[in-house]
Amino acid sequence: ISICRDLPNIEVITFSVNGISDLEPLHQCQNLSELYLRKNNITSLDELFYLKTLPRLRVLWLAENPCCGPDHHRYRMTVLRNLPSLQKLDNQAVTEEELSQALVDGVEITAPPARRSVENGWAECTASSAAGSAAEPDCELLSCSLEETNKTQEELDMKPVPRDKYFSFSPQETDCSCKKRNNVLSAILLLMKELDAEGLEVIQQTVARRLQAFQKKELQEE
């Protein structure tokens, strides 16, 4: 979900059933109001640390994650203590009584969770990493995304994305704009299958306008 770092204005995110364990990429989504994370791999409620900075978050669905544990009351109280602006948690309305009780029974989260050096099979890339070692996991990730993207293209009766168009940088390159473009493309195509006919028409009209603008710009430059 690293693409969320490039989507600060997004308002609703649905990531249910995706094997997600790290919520750090969400902390910059300042306009986020609804977040659906049901049935993922979030093991610690310390991940809520990254959601505490989101002023507009009103709906959170976190049920069926390992972090919920066997004690439902303690789990709910901890979430509400750290996210008191929530209006609905796990599809259940939040009451004033619960918010008051959360100050007593909930656990205050004051620090982010500890990270392992390798998580979910991917080496974590740090700013001090060498260009080659930092880029390799990204290339593998984008390669997987291309397969998933083309599967989605098939479902939408669209032509597959050529590998040279999608995966256009070598393992040694660190061109962030290229990675960002590919990640955005993958996310858009994957989300398109969630749209109905009306939504797809809006997308079609928007793309047509954008293409016209690009073509006009190219003609002016020539």
TrEMBL record:
InterPro entries: Leu-rich_rpt (IPR001611), Leu-rich_rpt_4 (IPR025875), LRR_dom_sf (IPR032675), U2A'_phosphoprotein32A_C (IPR003603). GO terms for biological process: cytoskeleton organization. Residues 72-90 form the U2A'/phosphoprotein 32 family A C-terminal domain. GO terms for cellular component: ciliary basal body; photoreceptor cell cilium. Keywords: Leucine-rich repeat, Repeat. The keyword DNA damage does not apply. Plays a role in cilia formation and/or maintenance. Plays a role in the regulation of cell morphology and cytoskeletal organization. Involved in DNA damage repair. This is Cilia- and flagella-associated protein 410. The lineage of its organism: Eukaryota, Metazoa, Chordata, Craniata, Vertebrata.
